[in-house]
Design brief:
alpha+beta, 2 domains, two-stranded antiparallel sheet, 2 helices, 15% strand
């Protein structure tokens, strides 16, 4: 990992599929890109590619709760 700098050309929040694709598209010589990820690296296992495990069993779903505009708690669909 490189050292943290005072400024970046781009900051990407989330190193998942979207963040990784965006970083790949933006990457060019001389560009400084910072990617921020909140969670740990997932283990490589067959369930990573299982629709049942990911979406039906919600194996990798975040356990946290957020508050909506009225202050009510809900479970976001984040992974």
């Amino acid at each position: 990992m490189s050292e943290i700098k005072d400024a970046y050309d781009f900051i990407i929040v989330g190193a998942g599929v979207g963040g990784g694709a965006l970083a790949n598209r933006l990457a060019a010589p001389g560009r400084d890109i910072l990617m921020i990820e909140r969670g740990p690296r997932l283990p490589r296992e067959p369930d990573n590619w299982s629709v049942k495990a990911v979406f039906h069993d919600r194996k990798y779903a975040a356990k946290e709760q957020w508050r909506d505009g009225k202050g009510e708690l809900f479970n976001p669909s984040t992974y």
